[in-house]
Amino acid sequence: MQTILGAGGAISTELAKVLPEYTDTIRLVSRNPKKVNASDQLMAADVTDSEAVDAAVKGSDIVYVTVGFAYKASVWQATWLPVMRSVVDACKTHGAKLVFFDNVYMYDPEHIPHMTEDTPYAPSSKKGEVRKQVAELVMNASKQGDIHALIARSADFYGPGHIDVSVLTQTVFDRLAAGKAAQWLASAKHPHAFTYTPDAGLATALLGNSEDAYGQVWHLPTAPEPPTGEQWVDKIAAALGTKSKVQVLPKWGIKALGLFMPLMHELAEMSYQYDRPYIFNSDKFSKRFGIDATPYDTAIQAIVDADYQS
Hints:
Blueprint: E1 2-5, H1 10-18, E2 26-30, E3 41-44, H2 50-57, E4 62-65, H3 73-94, E5 97-102, H4 126-143, E6 149-153, E7 157-158, H5 167-177, E8 182-185, E9 195-196, H6 197-208, E10 217-219, H7 229-240, E11 246-249, H8 251-257, H9 262-267, H10 283-289, H11 296-307
Parallel strand pairs: 1-2, 1-4, 2-3, 4-5, 5-6, 6-10, 7-9, 8-11
Helix pairs in contact: 1-6, 2-3, 3-4, 5-7, 7-11
């Protein structure tokens, strides 16, 4: 049995679609899980409850953590480490392998223009410090032999399904579709990579079911040569058949909007990701598995076809 902790989100849904290629039994765990495949087992549980986590992990061969807590630094500081300690302990107790879906917030901002699996951890944000602690917890447990674990790491992501947690969906796709100007943070002159959620789901399942992938960090397949902010807006507007227009929000503007918009308040400390090139290298995955990422133009059109065509 393969179990997804944090079912119902964008990544977990794409992952669940692929897992039937590897297992006959899939357990989806969240507060209110819903089936993705007809044969899915559902378990309602609060992952902040260690006993519930233990029960969810019991009987699992592989556990995928795709949990998404509220995008708020204080929530992350209070929940992530305790939850992941519970997950690691449960995996050790029940002999389950662990696949942790992660982001890039722990990376040194000076290395954002060329991120690889070897990029040093030196976060400049509160949320980044939390992700550093969690990543180190998982990999230390693996190195010590307590569990078999790997980290599947994604850039900012985008994909079909009206993904509320995707900044690109909220600030560009949705706004252009509504006839408004897209919004871009800090500067629209720099290239910015995004990971396509169907690619992330496929790759995470493949990693989890590849024995030699464990004990390592893997960047999930992400298309090279990403567009600049302006080019993203132009491409998405063209696919939507609407006028391309963008409002660039300077750092001070992000902070000002944060007084009224919770998302902008939390994005303020992450604005460094937009004031320089943001390049996410996934060559390691492509060379090992021979799978390339979906091209940006193809992905954009697929999203428009799925979510914005009446």
